[in-house]
Amino acid sequence: MSNRSAVLLVEDDAEISELISLYLENNGMSVTRLATGEGLDAKLTGGAFDLLILDLNLPGEDGFSICRRVRAAHDIPIIIVTAQGEDVDKILGLEMGADDYVVKPFNSRELLARIRAVLRRAEPQSQAAGTLPSQSFLFLGWRVNLLSREVVSPSGIKVAMTGAEFDLLHAFCENPNRVLTRDQLINMTHGPTAGPYQRSIDVLISRLRQKLEKDPKNPAMIQTVRSEGYMLSAPVSRA
Question: Computed from CA positions of residues 66, 71, 73, 74, in that sequence, does the dihedral angle turn out positive or negative?
Fold first, then answer.
């Protein structure tokens, strides 16, 4: 995470937009504000932003549509901020590619904690003193590089991953052929800011299967263990 993270905020409520901006700027971030999705693509071109905060109820193109479109074209982390607290809205936001969500009204400190957590997950790990030049997991031809946070397929193609998806795959690689409950996966990937929302893990599992499995509907690698959790069914080695 850079010393001064650049945040792009899309929020049509001027008062809320101002409050979020002031709070984040007072905590060392720079904020660019938009009231609608218009002009968003131009802003994202060039990768000048570290994070997108996106309201769902926007005039014109709604936040769900924007989230899906941005995720298809960019790897930027996305946090949804919305007054829609129903589970179905949270699930849909995650399915569209969001990394996290915050329900209005929210505590500013909670929003800041979630932003920092998402930025940490998206940041390539620096090479600490004494670590090996390369630290990767290998399984079934796949390579998961922990330093660059890149995932490379058996055919040598880099597969784009959100921060949350990468952390979930990392957790499985650390615990191959071991059943992990939803609570364990939440603690390993999101930490204490995640809350008790277990369905978020189910959505991330589905997204991960779409990227890794030959047949996501009949997964061979990331298997569901009924009434228990999920398991990476593959031998894993380090390189």
Answer: positive
Residues of the chain with CATH 1.10.10.10: 136-238
How far is 149 from 234, CA to CA, in rounded Å?
Answer: 20
Question: What is 91-156 written as a DSSP string?
Answer: HHHHHTT-SEEEESS--HHHHHHHHHHHHHHHSPPP--TT--S--EEEETTEEEETTTTEEE-TTS
Q: Determine the pLDDT at residue 3.
A: 65
Do the beta carbons of residue 67 and residue 42 sit within 8 Å?
no
**For the domain 136-238, what is the CATH code?**
1.10.10.10
Q: Which of 60, 67, 58, 93 is nearest to 200 (CA)?
A: 93
CATH class of 6-122: alpha beta
pLDDT > 90 fraction of the chain, expressed in percent and rounded: 53
Print burial letters for 98-121: b (CB count within 10 Å at least 16), e (below 16): bbbbbbeeeeeeebbebbbbbbeb
| DSSP 3-state of 224 | strand
- Range(s) within the chain of domains with CATH label 3.40.50.2300: 6-122
Q: pLDDT digits over 26-63, tens only?
A: 999 999 999 999 989 889 987 789 999 999 889 999 99
